[in-house]
Design goal:
heterodimer; A: about 550 residues; alpha+beta; D-amino Acid Aminotransferase, Chain A, domain 1; Dna Ligase, domain 1; five-stranded antiparallel sheet; 17 helices; 23 strands; B: about 525 residues; Alpha-Beta Plaits; metal ion binding (chain B); CPAse_ATP-bd (chain B); Acylphosphatase (chain B); ATP-binding (chain B)
Chain lengths: ~550, ~525
């Protein structure tokens, strides 16, 4: 059985990135790293002046544009790409032919081929095909996400079909025809002259255990994916493509594969189609790493980014790889949360590059974070163009949870507690529990303040009556700021509804308790001995009064 | 307009978000004035030291062409640190005022080393009555007025110096008259108001009780006073009784009946604008007072003015006064202090056209600042150019999900501000404001690109007269309504729960006291015997 635990960096767990998805995840991971090192973090909308100078795309809703500043300088970022990457480099990266020209000039291996402008006739392209070796790939110069790419074209007939599909049907008239390099595709992330991470993608797959059917195994695999911060929204769908694919390999959904037998479910390797990102950083030979580094260097002003290479394992290493694409704005979610191997800290490498003076500050033990959606809210409604996140507490974090019982429900008491926490530079929250207790979490770098907060509860000037304080160590991540939470999300209908139901239940319980007590007291009062001693008590009271 | 009761600033109508109500109004109104002129507006947190503890405070800054001014509520950064420190010290203030020949009440200050006897000796040289007040306490704390003899003075000294621990005090002549607050900026008096105690004016028909209800209804519409209503309590009963009145009395038409002694706003007091009624020589005194303190271009001067003699003395100078009472007086006219402040700090923007049709959101990010989630928020600049405001009513077989989001996106891409709401299914109201060209593009987009069957789509258009909040909002009427209902219900339940728990506590106490009582304990053997007996039965 495969390891079911999801893989991540110790300081970048699924819980911490829970509100950041897809390309927002990339931005959040890099921003968080800089922020945790003490840099000032601001999130922007596209209307914020600086971004007219940077090439960006797909910036709405917000959460992809941010800046980090030290005392000396500010750097602006779009997702994983910072402002040291020149616009020229971004433009080169966006044009596959242009990329190839620059790579070839620098001696980086690229697949042999040629670009054809929209004026070129199909015949011209077919004539060219006789000068290179089949199989071939036909792709648009400026398509993205694999759109309009036809691979493994084995003969002229197939080429004609492909040309009509890509150029006429899809309308990509500017195309590249090049040799199809069979082999495995690797995505390598490079910062300057260092490979930080490499991963490849396996198509959607399952591994048999000799017990479960393919259908059950897919379901199990999806359960595992659901735990992965990058993959939880990219589950394996059992669609016609999958059914056809396993059928050609001689299986049905009911087949029970042998233990350890790996069965591929599709051709496509895209993570969104159920593909697995697999960390191969340690397995990538140095020769290939060097090719990736050379590729980044070949483009003036690129400095860091993703390099896609194809490796033909049947060839000797020095001739085995070609670079097919560069990504100045590469996605890194897959390598932060791979299905196999280790998570690689690309965000740290990027921040090291932009702010080398912060290299010494280790964030590997950090568990502070900021609530991404909350911080972005004013930007998404456009009531703000810039928000600066409150500074991260720097250093070891101490955190405690106190559950306080008694007469502690007053709003002004909660407000007072919050001020006490902010005064002591503590982060955390107050959560009103449905039974009337409050849960108070305080966290900060000052151990004494965190542990000493227990004493604070009963020092309220308006005298909240604290009956009991239960304390425990808080090990979960710590959100910056201090919030008095209703115990439910007050803008979500369902959340409010369920809080209401809970409260009604609690009320019934309390009412019962009151009735019980009332009955009990009444019983005492009516008990004969209490009645009989009435005179005695009156007499006693009289004596007491007289004594005064 | 005849039916308009209050003479407030028209450009603030429909422009104050709910979270700016109350004491945040000062910040909001000044920021709004600058922002509407096209200044860049930023809010940020500071951790302010205040009597040994740190307090998180929200401040703001405005900038224009690279020039930035920071504001702490109404006080801008052209007020010098020295001026601030003079103003918080009543003794020092007086020193500077005297030097500039500004009339102040005759008196003397005493440090902590002075004995009470010393103060009593000085008292004998003054004309009675006198006032005793701490040198550096704010908000009228520890101020004892109208002291007429030595016994009263000794009591006051005991209270202020011993009990309240204000060792440094000022003893000065008590001036009969009314307290006025005069707002000065540069060399001009912008507004003057006084506070009068809670009162009602008779109409010859309704009784005091009913008149108070009407007054409170009006008060709820006042963005500054809405939370501080006139309470009908014992104190009021006694006050009325002493004047031969009850809540059921019906005052004559036009008669003003005071309800309390105290004039504080929280006790139902009212700010009354009297700017036009104050004689020029008193205004000049206020300006002189402001000038007397170096580095104080803006402030509020507190003066006591004697109506009969028309003589005014300066009591105090505030460098950071709240200005909302000038904006929302209960009688008289609103005075545009925010405009005067921005004119002073950014004179180059006096001629800028003010985009009164927009206001900025506050509810959305204020909690983020207050909770310490974010440190700083920059508000989008007010839209430039000629602004057109349209209300589009879209009807047809509209998709239930996603359409409002699509509209928001479309508005977003054209930088239009406004909102979309659906009062009922099959109908949407879209309000957009922006440049004419963008509005036209938006309309075309709605007509041609909507994810709706085109022949079933019907769009009508009209002008929109009200203000518009910057940004674009989806208003979920039904859901929001439900949430509010549930939230209210929850609040009620919580209150009931709280009460129940309280009564449980009382019952427990009672039970406890019975158990602990001597007679209960003494009769324990009897009860046990009785129980045994019962069991046997």
């Amino acid at each position: 059985m495969e390891n079911r635990q999801s893989i991540c960096l110790p300081h970048l767990t699924g819980e911490i990135v829970a509100s950041a998805r897809k390309t927002k995840l990339c931005a959040y991971a890099v921003a968080l790293e800089g922020w945790r090192r003490g840099l000032t973090l601001k999130w922007h909308t596209i209307d914020y002046g600086k971004y007219s100078e940077m090439i960006t795309f797909g910036v709405n809703p917000p959460g992809r544009l941010f800046s980090l500043s030290s005392k000396e300088r500010t750097h602006y970022f779009f997702r994983t790409r910072g402002d040291k990457v020149s616009n020229e480099a971004v433009e080169i990266g966006a044009d596959k032919d242009e990329t190839k020209v620059w790579l070839a000039k620098a001696g980086v291996p690229v697949p042999q081929g040629e670009k054809f402008s929209e004026n070129a006739a199909d015949e011209e392209i077919i004539t060219y095909s006789s000068t290179i070796e089949f199989p071939l790939v036909l792709k648009p110069t400026n398509g993205s996400l694999g759109n309009g790419v036809v691979t493994n074209i084995k003969d002229v007939h197939a080429l004609k079909k492909a040309l009509s599909y890509v150029r006429s049907e899809l309308g990509y008239s500017e195309v590249i025809l090049e040799r199809y390099v069979p082999g495995e595709e690797y995505r390598v992330y490079v910062v300057e002259d260092k490979v930080i991470a490499a991963y490849n993608r396996l198509p959607a797959n399952i591994v048999g255990d000799g017990i479960h059917t393919i259908e059950e195994l897919i379901d199990m695999k999806n359960q595992q994916r659901k735990k992965n911060a990058r993959l939880f929204s990219c589950l394996i769908d059992i669609d016609k493509e999958v059914l056809d694919f396993i059928q050609t390999s001689g299986y049905t959904l009911e087949s029970i594969p042998n233990r350890g037998e790996k069965i591929l479910l599709r051709e496509k390797t895209n993570v969104s189609a159920g593909g697995d990102p697999i960390d191969v950083t340690d397995d990538l030979p140095d020769e290939l790493k060097q090719i990736a580094v050379d590729a980044i260097k070949a483009i003036p002003g690129l400095h860091h980014g993703g390099v896609d290479i194809i490796v033909d394992v049947n060839k000797p290493i020095e001739k085995s790889a070609v670079v097919i694409e560069l990504n100045p704005t590469a996605q890194i979610g897959g390598i932060l949360f791979p299905m196999k191997g280790r998570a690689r800290d690309i965000p740290a490498a990027i921040i090291d590059y932009y702010f080398p003076e912060t290299k010494g500050i280790t964030t590997r033990n950090s568990r502070v974070y900021f609530d991404f959606n909350t911080v972005l809210e004013p930007l998404s409604s456009r009531s703000a163009v810039e928000v600066e996140v409150s500074p991260a507490p720097i250093g070891k974090i101490y955190a405690k949870k106190y559950i306080v019982s008694g007469f502690v429900q007053r709003v002004s008491y909660h407000q007072w507690l919050k001020n006490q926490a902010l005064d002591k530079h503590l982060n955390g929250f107050i959560n009103k529990l449905s039974d009337g207790d409050i849960e108070v979490v305080v966290a900060g770098t000052n151990k004494k303040a965190v542990n000493g907060f227990k004493e604070v509860f009963s020092h309220d000037p308006k005298k909240a009556e604290v009956r009991k304080i239960k304390e425990e160590i808080w090990r979960s991540p710590v959100k910056v700021g201090f919030e008095i939470s209703e115990g439910f999300n007050s803008s979500n209908l369902r959340s409010v509804e369920s809080a209401l139901k809970k409260m009604e239940k609690e009320l019934r319980r309390v009412e019962k308790e009151k009735n019980r007590l009332q009955k009990e007291t009444a019983k005492i009062k009516e008990s004969r001995s209490w009645k009989y001693t009435l005179r005695l008590r009156k007499f006693g009271n009289l004596l007491k009064t007289l004594a005064k | 307009m005849m039916d308009k009761k209050f003479n407030w600033l028209q450009h603030l109508d429909d422009s104050i978000p709910s979270s700016a109500y109350g004491y945040k109004l000062c910040i909001y109104s000044i920021a709004l004035e600058g922002w509407r002129r096209g200044l860049r507006l930023k809010f940020f947190n500071v951790f302010r030291k205040d009597r040994g503890t740190t307090k998180l405070t929200v401040r703001f800054s405005l900038s224009y062409n690279g020039k930035e001014h920071k504001f702490a509520v109404s006080r801008g950064d052209l007020v010098s640190k020295q001026a601030i420190s003079i103003c918080v010290d009543k003794d020092k203030t007086k020193e500077y005022l005297l030097k500039a020949n500004v009339s102040v009440p005759e008196g003397k200050s005493f440090g902590s080393s002075s004995s009470n006897e010393e103060i009593v000796e000085y008292f004998k040289t003054l004309n009675y009555p006198v006032v005793l007040k701490p040198t550096d306490a704010g908000g009228g704390k520890g101020v004892i007025t109208n002291i007429t003899n030595i016994v009263e003075l000794e009591e006051a000294l005991n209270l202020v110096r011993t009990e309240l621990q204000y060792k440094d005090v000022i003893l000065e002549k008590y001036i009969q008259g009314e307290d006025h607050r005069i707002y000065v900026i540069g060399d001009n008096v912008i507004g003057v108001y006084k506070r009068i105690a809670a009162n009602v004016i008779g109409d010859g028909e309704k009784n005091i009780d009913e008149l108070i209800d009407i007054k409170n209804k009006e008060r709820k519409k006042n963005p500054y006073l809405f939370g501080r209503l006139i309470k009908k309590d014992k104190e009021m009963d006694n006050f009325l009784k002493a004047r031969g009145l009850t809540l059921k009395s019906v005052p004559k038409k036009g008669d003003r009946v005071f309800l309390r002694e105290k004039g504080s706003l929280s006790a139902g007091g009212e700010p009354i604008d009297v700017t036009d009624k104050i004689p020029n020589h008193i205004k000049k005194t206020a300006i002189d007072a402001a000038r007397a303190i170096p580095g104080l271009p803006q402030c509020a001067v507190d003066m006591i003015i004697d109506k009969e003699s028309n003589i005014g003395v300066v009591n105090e100078v505030n460098s950071k006064p709240q200005i909302s009472n000038h904006l929302y007086p209960v009688e008289g006219y609103a005075r545009d202090i925010p405009k005067a402040i921005i004119d002073y700090y950014f004179p180059e923007t006096i001629k800028e056209s003010r985009k009164d049709c927009f206001y900025f959101d506050f509810d959305n990010f204020l909690p983020l600042l207050i909770n310490g989630f974010v440190e700083e928020v920059v508000v989008p600049c007010v839209p430039k150019g000629e602004i057109v405001k349209k209300k589009l009513t879209v009807s047809g077989s509209l998709p239930a999900i996603g359409y409002k989001k699509w509209i928001k996106k479309a508005a977003h891409s054209l930088r239009l501000n406004g909102f979309v709401e659906s009062p009922k299914t099959g109908k949407l109201i879209v309000v957009v404001a922006g440049e004419k060209e963008s509005i036209n593009k938006f309309k075309t987009k709605l007509q041609t690109q909507s994810p709706v069957e085109l022949d079933k789509l019907n769009i009508t258009e009209e002008e929109w007269g009200k203000t518009i909040k910057i940004g674009f909002e989806i208003i979920n009427n039904s859901e929001k309504g439900n949430i509010d209902v549930y939230k209210n219900e929850l609040k009620l339940l919580k209150r009931t729960n709280f009460k129940l728990k309280k009564s449980i506590k009382e019952i427990e106490k009672e039970k406890d006291s019975i158990r602990r009582s001597t007679s209960w304990r003494l009769t324990k053997p009897i009860r046990i015997a009785g129980d045994i007996f019962k069991v046997k039965k």
